[in-house]
Amino acid sequence: MSLSLLLTLTLRAFISPGGSDTPVSVGGLHPSDGPDADVRIQVEPERVRFFIMLNLAFVDEIVDVAREADDDLHPVEAPWVREALLDYFKEENQVEINDQLVEPVDAGFEMLEPDLTLLPLFPRMGKKALVKLQLILDYPAVADPRRVRMVWGAYPPDLAVGSEGFMPTVTIRAQLFSGGIVSPVEFIEAEPEFTLHATGETATDRMLAVPEAVSPERLQWPIISSTLVLAGTIVLIRRRFDGRALVTMLVTFSIAFLLRRYAHVELPFEMAGASLPDASEAEEIFLPLHANMYRAFDYTAESDIYDALERSVDGDLLDELYEQVYRGLIQQEQGGAVSRVQEVRPLEVEVKAVGRIPDDGRLGFTVETRWQIDGRVTHWGHSHDRTNEYHARYAVVQTSEGWRIGGSQILASQTVSATPEGSGG
Question: CB neighbours of 7 closer than 8 A, spacing ≥ 6?
Fold first, then answer.
């Protein structure tokens, strides 16, 4: 599935009738009960693409197109609104690619069917909050975008949180997809501009450094010489150290000495006698491994997430930890939307044992730890923040690739804080 199709399906899922993303409101008011925009920006080698989803309340604040019904849009009227929106964004929004101002190209328009069962959550705007339009704008690039300057120009009053005495303008909380990584971007009226500098950095480049496992050089075992020494010793013992046996042994040992540099066999990594860390060093190894496990989810493609996870997690545990972390980031009440990690905050780390890992046999150490995850789900043009706390036991093992998390057991989890649904983002 292409990223363009994935983004389109994701946007449509936010308002799909009868879907699982039915918002739950606190106090009977949804934070999108006002002008609402959901913006996704996709940077590709040949273009910068904006997926812009607006509700009718937002549209009415920026363009003036006559309609038969104030709270609805008839399909016959849709082309006029499409043309008006295209003209508006050409005038008010700006995109520069590699220092060249680029005109947008109309790449798609769709009017999406509203879910009228949600009307009770939108007492201010009513159906105008639920009728949604999706506009796709392409900004062609003549060369791979290295510097992309974006200016957003539309800031209607935020009717969902404003009052007679105070009426702020909306904040556009966009998501930027570039280099396989998704990042949050905010546009506000006081700071309407954002510049992307494409450095080629990947999520893997953002990984924290992990101390290397200290081990001697891999041991080389001289198989021919060892066999000759063993054979000579057996002959000597069997012949009870007689003269011929002594001569045979001396000849055998001499040949073994001459052949000691040939036909070596490398001993397994576990037999190389690697040095183990003390408790303090073990903590310094574990913390970046644990943080990097979450940083892998900055990627958008599952294959890239797995590749990044391999730098922190032993291969046999990859599937289990992928599912464990992914489930922890899913916001079920947001229809399965994935929370983006803002911060991994360790609270306690206790190294329990250093040596061979029980039921594993490899060298390493075990850790019991508590930590908090700050995450953010962005949809419907607003965001929900949540902090979850976890308590778990981990095993960290030495491998030929370095230190890796080789075992995991979640002992407890709880939600510490969450943005109420009715409070806005």
Answer: 40, 42, 51, 177
CA dihedral 17, 18, 20, 25 (to 10 degrees): 80
Q: How are beta strands 172-178 and 37-44 bridged, if at all?
A: parallel
pLDDT one-digit tens code per residue, 354-393: 998 888 888 899 999 999 988 877 655 456 678 889 999 9
What backbone torsions phi and psi does residue 171 show, to the nearest 5 degrees? -105, 130
Residue-wise pLDDT tens digits, 384-422: 678 889 999 999 998 888 899 999 999 999 988 765 443
> 160: which 2 tokens?
């969902």
Distance (Å, whole) CA 136 – CA 107: 5
The distance from CA 380 to its chain's CA centroid, rounded to whole angstroms, is 20
Residue 178 token pair? 């570039």
How does DSSP classify residue 45?
T
Amino acid, single-letter form, for residue 118: L
pTM for the whole structure? 0.64
Question: CB within 8 A of 163, min separation 6: which ones?
Answer: none
CA distances from residue 268 to 317, 365, 400 in whole angstroms, order as listed: 21, 20, 9
Residue 336: per-residue pLDDT? 47
* Contact between residue 334 and residue 356 where contact means Cβ atoms under 8 Å apart: no
Nearest to 199 by CA among 228, 183, 179: 179
Integer Cα distance of 262 and 227 in angstroms: 12
| Cβ–Cβ < 8 Å for 272, 219 | yes
What's the distance, Cα to Cα, between the start and end of the chain in Å? 30
Cα–Cα distances in Å, from 120 out to 33, 132, 178, 235? 11, 17, 38, 96
Q: Render the burial of 52-61: b for 16+ CB within 10 Å, e for the rest.
A: bbbbbbbbbb
pLDDT-derived band at 13, boundaries 50, 70, 90:
very low
- Indicate the SS3 state at residue 134: strand
